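Re: weekly structure request thread

Next one in the queue (344 aa):
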Amino acid sequence: MKGFFKKGLLLILVGLLIFSLSGCGQNSGATNDKKEENQSSEGAVNYPTKPITIVVPYNPGGGVDTSTRTIQPFLQDALGQPVVVENRPGGGMSVGYNYVAGAKPDGYTFMAAPIPTMIFTDLTLPNLKAKFNEFKPVASWVNDDCSPLVVRADSPYKTLKDFVEAAKSKTMKLGLSGGAYSTDHMTYAMLSEVTGVKFNLVPYGSSGEALAALEGGHVDAILASLVTAITAQDAGQAKILAVSKNERLSIAPDIPTFKEQGYDVVIEFHIGLFAPPNTPDDIVKIMADKLVQAASSEEFRNRVKEVKSPAGEPMTQEEWSKYCQDEYNRWKEMVNILEKHPLG
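Done, posted below.
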């Protein structure tokens, strides 16, 4: 009887011990889950906690590179963390595009990309790692840019009409600072459409290379970044015959547009940040707010005036997202123009 009692008591104690351990395990799991949840929440609130990389999918010295490096110190100050600009050129902009598409979506890698060029990349190139609409638009800080048609300062072509008329009677060499499906390519395609003129195209890796070719007499004219063109004109090295804005530039109101000279070529250029697909929305929002803060600062505004950067007013995350979607809907109907005027 006593043995039976002892065995029963032992079984009860073992049962209680198992129940206790099971409960502890469940509580421990719940505690760990809560801890992970808090860490995730705190991670977003404390973001960023380490350096951020902005990938530029073009060579150094071009418009996107120059504009990104102009905002970089001000964005760095707003974030309180180092911002590293990394060039990954090639394949139009597909090398940098694919790199960011496959990057870890943790808020520490972004792409500085131009619209509409990023849209052309999505619509025309195969084997991309993500569709345009899978990226997360962050915000933009360059919204007054375009393509300028530039000739040497001593060029015999004093107006756009002079240049077009001459191109009708002889083959002109036109240098492009962007590759296939770039804004320069689109500007050339539209100019060729409205004038019926074909050019001998010479692509370059950057605006700096294109300008050097122009100065060396290797081409008759170039389409290049606006900052490069204005700087060269101010230095007496070049003359801008036209810009592809709908209205004259606020930073250079003396330069006429293609449109006002009778050629309906309007290609406006915007540069903003894009996050990899699946980047958390709260991290994108923090980066967007900091970018707008940096682009709205008095120090940045003074700097862009000094270097004549076509910044314009920044777009918030909501504004930039809507603009990108509207432009995508617009350009997917017009991309056939580029196919009619290939670079090769």
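The CA atoms of residues 29 and 118 lie 45 Å apart. The chain has two domains: 52-145+269-340, 148-261.
Next request, please.
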